[in-house]
Amino acid sequence: MKKSKRTKKSNFWRIKHRKDQFFKKSKTLGYRSRASFKLLELNKKFKIIKKNSYLLDLGSSPGSWSQIASKIITTGKILSIDIKKMEPIKNVKFLNCDIFDQSTKDKITFFFRGQLDVIISDMAANTTGNKSLDSIRTNQLCSEVLSLSTKILKPKGVLLSKLFMGDDFIEIKNLAKSIFKEVDFFKPESSRNESKETYLHCKSFKTL
Ligand SMILES: C[S@@+](CC[C@H](N)C(=O)[O-])C[C@H]1O[C@@H](n2cnc3c(N)ncnc32)[C@H](O)[C@@H]1O
User: Fold this and answer.
1) Are strands 54-58 and 118-121 parallel, antiparallel or unpaired?
2) N or C, where is the chain less crowded by C-beta within 10 Å?
3) CA distance 183 to 176
4) Predicted model pTM
5) Which residues of 54-67 are buried (b: 16+ CB within 10 A; e: fewer)?
6) Dihedral angle of Cα 152, 155, 161, 165, to the nearest 10 degrees
7) Which long-range contacts (CB under 8 A, 24 or more apart) does 88-92 make?
8) CA distance 42 to 12
9) Can you say whether the dihedral through the CA atoms of 113, 157, 207, 167 is positive or negative?
10) What is the pLDDT of residues 92-130, one digit of tens each?
């Protein structure tokens, strides 16, 4: 793309972003990004986070979801993980690492000691400009989180994960259904209409 076209396109997005009601509201309320509203809507629908929850936030940077979780959780524990840095949040332990490294998994196990109630994952792969490839790569993260959940979550625990409505959607839905008793999908109003993003909500492991 020529430089002038790229500039026009980025200006278009900047103006659109500024007009966005969730963006404006997030600034007013001191949230780190408009993503806060997605978790607020998801939590309203699924009642995921309780005041005593032990919660793991995957792909937490810049910290909007952790910020919301830290306001609800008063007697539980929060561990947030991202390969990008995150500014500190009161009562949130942050690890700057890759969730799929064995050493990270060991740290999660040590932190929660078998008491993990909730995993929230808003992880997304770095964008390449190719929407279909980006969707596949983010959905791979979702599949990997599903597998990881079987090793770290309590039997009646909850997993909430971002995913995209791509060709691999049914495959992921089937994987989730093979692991959990309850599986639902929900696209919050604050998720942009033009985005194929949705959220997977799973609860309670199936007994083998
Ligand atoms: C959409 S952002 C998350 C926004 C966040 N939920 C919030 O509310 O501020 C997606 C994040 O996933 C992180 N991510 C992607 N792959 C990861 C991995 N393997 N391990 C940890 N974090 C990862 C990215 O660095 C990025 O910060």
Assistant:
1) parallel
2) C
3) 7
4) 0.91
5) bbbbbbbbbbbbbb
6) 120
7) 89/63, 92/57, 92/63, 92/66
8) 29
9) negative
10) 999 999 999 999 999 999 999 999 999 999 999 998 888
Phi, psi of 45 (to 5 degrees): -75, -45
Pocket of ligand 1 (CB under 6 A): 32-33, 35, 59-65, 81-84, 98-100, 122-124, 141
The single residue listed with the structure tokens 């008793």 is 181
Each residue of 43-99: pLDDT tens digit? 999 999 999 999 999 999 999 999 999 999 999 999 999 999 999 999 999 999 999
